[in-house]
Amino acid sequence: MSRKSILGLLSMAALRPHLLFALAFVLASAGNATAGMCVDGAFGDDAKCDSRDIRIVDVVGEQVTDNGCIGHGDTVTLSGKLKVIVDLEDDDDHDDDGHSDDKLYDIGLFLGQDGEQALEGSCKVLTLPTAPSPFLDEDNDNCGDTAGDRTLLVSFTNLTVKCIDEDEDGRAELAACATWTESSKTSCSGPHNVKPGNENSCSCTKEPIDLDVPITGGNPTGKCDDDNPCSDDGIACTQEICDPDDARANEFGCYSVARNSRCDDGKFCNGAETCDANLGCRSGTAPNCNDNVTCTVDACNEDQNECTHTANNNACSDGKFCNGTETCTSTGCKPATQRACSANDDECTTSTCNETTDTCNIVPHHDECDDDNPCTTDTCDIHDGCRHVDTCNATTDAVCRSAGFWGTHGGFERGADNLIQDIIDTVGDIEVCGITISATVNDEALWVEDLGLSSALEGLCVKAEGEKVRQLYRQLIATALNCALSGAGDSCDDVLASAIDVSFDDCSDLCTTLHESFVNGVAGHDDDDDELTTGQCIQQLDCFNKGGRMIDGKCARGTCSEQEELFCGFQYPACPEIDGDDQRCRRFEDSCASEDLCQEELGICPDNAKASSPEACREARNNDCTIDSCE
Length: 631
Known about the structure:
alpha+beta
């Protein structure tokens, strides 16, 4: 019998039960293979190959097609099957068999040929087959994909590697890496262009994989050889080796070597499993994640292969509201700063901290704001301090309220004034996003049934669910109502000019384009390279509606009370403390959010800003008719 046939039979006989199960589960041939550069070359930079999502853990069924390794400087050509483990079981979504539903695309298997490693140098590169199941072709290219937790056996042929035996166990070794991408949009036409989707989409063997290929200088007569192989020692994780010249060999020239890789369960938090040559696989020791900080929650993160230490501020709390909030840091609990109850630096208020009710009691004193000007109404705002509203001259200042405010002021429930309907009845229908809005609710039923997108509440209250066109539609409706209440006439941009730098009409036209795309059954498109994007319109219109101002590309609420050169609020950070005391973030002096809703010139002057109950808004939120679909 030939050496090739004998080694093939020996390799199959050495399969362990769990590998036989995997072989019965799926046995397929690998896709096209090519010789080329290893992972670093394919990635174009240093790859971080420490992921455990997909790993090459063993080689089974080796068949040597030349004279094998007769010395450490020799090469060996062989075929066999790579045991590949896909382990995504920590993901939330699983199928009926308990497997993860996640998919990995364009799997690349890099087999080092220089005997050293598979990150650089020369590799044989394989891709997974695209069929049959469980091999997949989810992205319709020439590189195979996989889904869920699997054990795959992937065939390779005519692999020539250098005979290296760094651990001196008498067996040739193979270094291997696996790469993939998590994006189905990456095109892959074959082994020559597989590469990791990012530096973390790569896994390499911690230690080279021992092959069932002995490295010997020839065996003496009467000892084990190809015709008299070593028998299985009954320990699943050991490899039986025939090398009569090795000091570890018995009288037949055989000895067993423990292979830790056969015990690896792929779980970082379980520690490193080991193989005992007498007892078999032994459990690893879990990493010690205790950071000796009493207020942190210590845990082992399997996804990141590291210990985590999450601060728990509650563990530091002394239960005293007026003492402020104690915090947990990496060195332990940090005392709190005494709670500062002053809302506007005591300009016109007195403030006390009430430990019984866990509140700050702030009392405004309007008389302290008197500016001796008979043409102003002087009041104290507990947040912004003294306010002086001109009551002698008609004001052209913009009036604004957020989309959330308008969503609760479009119904008649609880005796509320339907402010949106008052505006529409006064200034006429609102044109937004190519849609005419003529009502808020039905006069009889007080709901939005049968109104569809002609109801302002349909755009203000509907669930956005990640659709930018819905978010833009909501902000455009709120802006249109604010402009109408501000007496903008035909040009909303005159009202917006002092706060933001996008055009209302341009944003409405962009929304119209996206809406028409959905109506025509074409996915909406928003190219980041366009002059104006959906995201810019959403951000800036929302900034105006909340009474903010765009400063250097970010939305600011106002300036710090003690450092007026610092912008704060919304997208800007909170004001820094001064000598341990908090600073207030004061609204801009001319903020439209502070303007009165009463517009006597338009004949709109609600007695109050009482909100309606949420029933009408809730019905609009759950309607099927939205700006991007109407089912």
